[in-house]
Amino acid sequence: MKKFWNWLRNSEGERTLRLEGPIDEDSVWGDEITPKAFRAELEEDAGDITVWICSPGGNVFAAAEIYTMLREYPGTVTVKIDSIAASAASVVAMAGDRVLMSPTGMLMIHDPSTIAMGNSEDMRKAIDVLNEVKESIINAYTAKTGLSHARIANLMSNETWMNAKKAVELGFADGILFEDADSDDDPDEEADTGEDDDEKPLRMKAQLYSTRRMGQVILNRLGVSDQVQQKPVDTSPEKPDGGVPSQPIIGMDGTTEDGSVPYLILQKQLECLR
Questions:
Q1: Is the pTM of this model over 0.85?
Q2: Hey, what domains does the chain have and what are their CATH numbers?
């Protein structure tokens, strides 16, 4: 028997089970050596356990018995998938009270397969057995995910591969390793600034006022006042005393009192843009 599991204990005394490689790849039909050895080590101690899985699958009957033993275990079982839990290994993963996946981990479910020999009757019996095995696996998946029998059967028939996010979405996993609790917040939601609703309009008014001030600064740099004069605009080409014609007053809308934009103003604006 090739052992595919290993028990570890951290500094705090918590037990960790690592399932690595194919599950019971050397076993034959009806082999009970692996489940017995696994049960003996599982029951050596009590307390919560963490099960790390990195396995492409293997013997579905050995996986089924390990699944049952972990479900029956009195302590809390936390399953962590670090790279892959495929085929029969995904069945074992469903035994966790909480299933967590690495961001780079994968989970795969598919229809069971076998190798059969014999006549046509033997082939029909093998097909019947495979159908029943599929039903037993569906029981484990539906118990964990809550998905319908038809949905699970379809996912298995299509050999479905799931990354961590998809597995969580479908209910095969409960969370993703290393993610903060706040990562579930919608990034599109407006951040809470701590302001009361009554304060927000005041902040908006300040922003609008700043926009008006910006326009006023631009006009001041052009040498134009934004103050509206009360006296009419002198549009004569020259003053009687030979002075320079008075500058028309431009408002915040960019026009003078008569609705036009003076040539000198436009010229100064163009010079600022060069």
A1: no
A2: 5-182 (3.90.226.10), 200-273 (no CATH)
